[in-house]
């Protein structure tokens, strides 16, 4: 259970938990500028990958209009605090990405579809998504 102090820190943007969604999105925006982020998919925690936080999949917009597909997951670091690892898995035409994500969902055997958030390189959409995530983190 989070404390009231933790909730205030999350609302103010100074998160304590690097695994909370708002902190993870902040980390992503340092790696890939939000104007290049096309889509984000939020998978529930995957026991075979990470058991305590969401598994994130996202795409960045390439110069040719295609998409680079990335995963972001939390990993422990040999006695140091957990940190997010972002890996590029490949590139594809934009219209092929939904099929790739659906295939991943089938292979993972998730009963519920991943939550899809369309950013489409729009800074206002990104900021709204980050703010919603801060609010959700504060409510936890």
Write the layout of secondary structure elements.
Blueprint: H1 4-11, H2 21-31, E1 37-43, E2 55-61, E3 67-77, E4 80-92, H3 97-108, E5 115-118, H4 123-139
Antiparallel strand pairs: 1-2, 1-5, 2-3, 3-4
Q: What does it look like?
A:
It is a single chain. This protein is an alpha+beta fold and 140 residues long. It is built from four helices and five strands; from the N terminus they run ααββββαβα. α2 (21-31) packs antiparallel against α4 (123-139). The longest helix is centred in the C-terminal third of the chain and has 17 residues, at 123-139. A five-stranded antiparallel sheet has the order 4-3-2-1-5, covered by helices on one side.
Name its key features.
alpha+beta; five-stranded antiparallel sheet; 34% helix; disordered N terminus; 4 helices; 140 residues; 5 strands
Number of helix segments?
4
Question: How far from one another are the termini?
Answer: 7 Å
Largest sheet: 5 strands, antiparallel
Residue stretches low in confidence (pLDDT < 50, at least 5 long) are 1-15
Determine the strand fraction and express it as a percent band: 25-35%
Strand order of the largest sheet: 4-3-2-1-5
Tertiary shape: globular
- Give the fraction of residues assigned to helices: 25-40%
Task: Give the overall pLDDT as a whole number.
Answer: 83
Number of strands: 5
Indicate the structural class: alpha+beta
From N to C, what is the helix and strand string? HHEEEEHEH
Rg for CA atoms? 15 Å
